[in-house]
Design goal:
alpha/beta; 278 residues; Nitrilase/N-carbamoyl-D-aminoacid amidohydrolase; C-N_Hydrolase; nine-stranded mixed beta sheet; C-N_Hydrolase_sf; single chain; hydrolase; 30% helix; six-stranded mixed beta sheet
Length: 278
């Protein structure tokens, strides 16, 4: 069986939903031309950097889907392509939204959604102060990996990447691929982005796919980019770079994943009796 190709995407999102949608559709077309079976988009692909009052008016529930998500679903069906995308979802709490990762099938159906568990509340020296919890409601559950043509996909978002217990839990639930749609800051991205992605891949022996926002969104916010795909051995097999909109393509080869897990069965060696099932 030939391996399936996937595309990881990055672009510079902004406050305009229509402009961000146009970027996503443009990148979906490029991925389709390269025969990708699935494309992965960043966190906050619908809009980013908007004042909280405006963000509330722009966001929608998943059902019925808003115009951004509805159009992505339509394009996925037309291209016969699965899609992972990060959006803002309206919550029951006025003025505060969910940071949500949506998985869409090649029939244009929303198959699963995950609400970000770990919120990014930090004040970085010589960097931005970002208090995600002021405008975002934290999710409260892990979502089981989803069966897709490329394997079982485990859903995370950005800051979740820093918590290995979540990645290990998804692996124990059967994940072959871990996904982290992101908008990493330039400062933290330069220091930690690739290291964290490769670490999650090595310790779970899984593919890691991390789409990324890139470039300057406002006077004070700049995203690192370098959307990546990392294989189960920890090798970076695709990297979009740190400046331009674009996609990078790589194959998902599940026989290689199975060989790595068989030859080095680290999950079987974990001492759950000592480390409390972590």
């Amino acid at each position: 069986m030939l391996p399936f190709k996937i595309a990881v995407a990055q672009f510079r999102g902004g406050q305009s939903v229509s402009a961000n949608l146009a970027a996503c559709l443009r990148l979906m077309g490029q991925a389709s031309q390269q025969a990708a079976k699935m494309i992965f988009f960043p966190e906050a692909s619908d809009f980013i950097g908007n004042p909280s009052e405006e963000a509330w008016t722009l966001a929608h529930p998943l059902v019925p889907a808003g115009p951004f998500l509805e159009r992505i679903c339509t394009e996925a069906k037309q291209l016969g392509m699965w899609c992972s995308v990060g959006i803002h979802e309206k919550s029951p709490f006025p003025g505060r939204l969910y940071n949500t990762h949506v998985l869409i099938s090649d029939q244009g159906l929303i198959i699963e959604s995950y609400r970000k568990i770990h919120l990014f509340d930090v004040d970085i020296a010589n960097g931005p102060r970002l208090m995600e919890s002021q405008n975002t409601v934290a999710g409260d559950e892990l979502v089981a990996p989803v069966s897709t043509p490329i394997g079982k996909v485990g859903l995370g978002i950005c800051y979740d990447l820093r918590f290995p217990e979540m990645a290990l839990a998804l692996r124990r639930c059967g994940a072959d691929i871990l996904t982290y749609p992101s908008a990493f800051t330039a400062k933290t991205g330069e220091a930690h982005w690739e290291i964290l992605l490769r670490s999650r891949a090595i310790e779970t022996q899984s593919y890691v796919v991390a789409a990324a926002q890139v470039g300057q969104h406002s006077a004070t916010r700049f995203s690192y980019g370098h959307a990546m795909i990392v294989d189960p051995w920890g090798k970076v097999v695709a990297d979009c770079g740190g400046s331009e909109e674009g996609i990078a393509i790589a194959p998902i080869e599940l026989p290689i994943l199975e060989r790595i897990r068989t030859e080095m069965p680290v999950l079987n060696h974990r001492r759950y009796d000592i480390f409390s099932n972590q």
